[in-house]
Amino acid sequence: MARWQDDHxxxxxxxxxxxxxTKDRPDYSSAPDALVVSIDRGRYRCFLNNGTAVTATKxxxxxxxxxxxxxxxxxxxxxxxxxxxxxxxxxxxxxxxWLRRSADDLDTFERPIVANADQLMIVTALADPEPxxxxxxxxxxxxxxxxxxxxxxxxxxxxxxxDALRTAYAPLEIPVVVIHPGSDLSPVRSLLEHHVxxxxxxxxxxxxxxxxxxxxxxxxxxxxxxxxxxxGRHTSTSAAAIxxxxxxxxxxxxxxxxxxxxxxxxxxxxxxxxxxxxIVTACPRGCRHDSSxxxxxxxxxxxxxxxxxxxxxxxxxxxxxxx
Length: 323
Fold this sequence. Notes:
With 323 residues, the protein is an alpha/beta fold. It is 20% helix and 22% strand. The chain has helices spanning 133-145, 163-169, 186-192, 207-214, 266-269, 274-279, 297-303, 309-319; strands at 33-40, 43-48, 53-58, 72-77, 87-92, 98-101, 111-115, 119-125, 149-155, 176-178, 196-200, 240-243, 249-252. The strands form 3 sheets. Strands 10-9-8-11-13-12 form a 6-stranded mixed sheet. The chain is globular and about 80 Å long. The termini are far apart. Residues 223-235 have low confidence and may be disordered.
């Protein structure tokens, strides 16, 4: 007897045939390492350890994981660096440090700046535009929170004296360098060599001019301060890591007009200062360590000569950045 057949069976939707998923992930342990030095519209400029410059995209395997300047990554694909070649970033190594900011203190969205820097140089002009200690303090807070060592670079010393700012930040014992057009940059180079240093500051303070002087031929765009607003015009439009001839890297960043620190927890901030951290263990529970805090152990340490008054004032000036 012939087998009955359904005349409409051939019109059914075909069954989906897909290969069974595997839990095995590609092994990229032997893939070449690279440093991300710049980003432009989804293209990542990377330097291999041998110095070859490679253009890459972010592989789908990374999903929503971000890649920023300073990241150490692994590349797959064409890593020859030849014109028109394109590699893929397949892994991002764990970051040793991560410097970030928000647009302002009401903005909870964190904006990553750079990865793996071990130094942060705050570049501020002594005049044109005028220095703002509030901005410097906020950047210092972000640096200490990220466990990145700060340096203060005062530019345009031919226009104003650096003495006031030197005095204001002396209690923090951070390196301070003072420069003017045509000055000897040896003290700056000695602080930067063999480190990864990110440069941050207002627009128009001379960051890009400094970078061009440290690494001739870099070609970072420079600009002047507006006569109308008194503010610097944005020249650098994206972060870029630049190799120093003597070893190390500097990362030039776009000028900022605000520096939010909403990502920094005030109660954890004091942990960045080992000398103060030991003292505040004697504070009453819930102490905010500010000038209005009753029975703060920091005040007691000043009274008994274990902490200088200038050191405490300097800390509390930065602490007010959270207010």
